[in-house]
Amino acid sequence: MGKILDGKKVSQKILASLRKEILVLNGKGIVPGLAIVQVGQNPASNVYVSKKLETAVGLGFNAFCEKFPAGVSFEEIKAKILQLNGDKKVSGMIVQLPLPKQLDEGKVMELIGSRKDVDGFSFVNQGKLFAGEPSFIPATPKGILALIKSTGKPVKGKNCVVVGRSNIVGKPVSQLLLAENGTVTVCHSKTKNIGWFTKNADILVVAAGKPRLIKGSMVKKGAIVIDVGTTKVKGKLVGDVDFESAKKRASFITPVPGGVGPMTIASLLQNTVAACRMQNNA
Length: 282
Fold this sequence. Notes:
Radius of gyration: 19 Å
Number of helices: 10
Helix content: 40-55%
Oligomer: single chain
CATH topology of the largest domain: Rossmann fold
Strand content: 15-25%
Order of helices and strands: EHEHEHEHHHEHEHEEEEHEH
CATH architecture of the largest domain: 3-Layer(aba) Sandwich
CATH class of the largest domain: Alpha Beta
């Protein structure tokens, strides 16, 4: 029976460490600032934004959200992001995804200055990650790696399988595992016989967006299983892994909710404090 990888517990250790860092910065007259740009009233986004703000403010950040209606134009968003780029009180900035169809996510992300891109989604920061010289690592992949390391099991030499190839999770987490000397395979919707790959994975990261895609029979005995999926099914939040059957074979497994989610917020705030230090030479 797999041990539960409690993201809340691991994230609390990170936040406790950040709180100490922030007190030191406060002693120098420095307060980390996080700005969130949100478009529309997506219910899930509302929850994520409120959690990020609540955690940030609780740590002593100057954190706020700039909200826009769903029909906002690119020019209006551009003007706000450029203004925040120049605001010295803002250490880091994120645009909450998804965005409405009239806004090109790539073009919007490119407006954020790379020194304030604490979500790590700009082409500059993505390029640095793939070149092995990361500045800001995307928050969810960074949190995933921290969870894997919290098991005490090394990534080096392990067969690592990532299911999903998004720019937000799949691609960056595969690069992080490569950097840790894992042997990485990326599976996706066009992969044939996906179970063959997952059954050979010592470390399995699933970010496909398909509820209960990975059954217990597709998990290697003793594997570390990280479930990034969050989909509501009959009013209940479920992951991409069939938790009940998979936990019988895994050595460690994340729950949904309470696994990767809290780690994403903690990692985002880590990046923001790092940005604050960099901008203030502190």
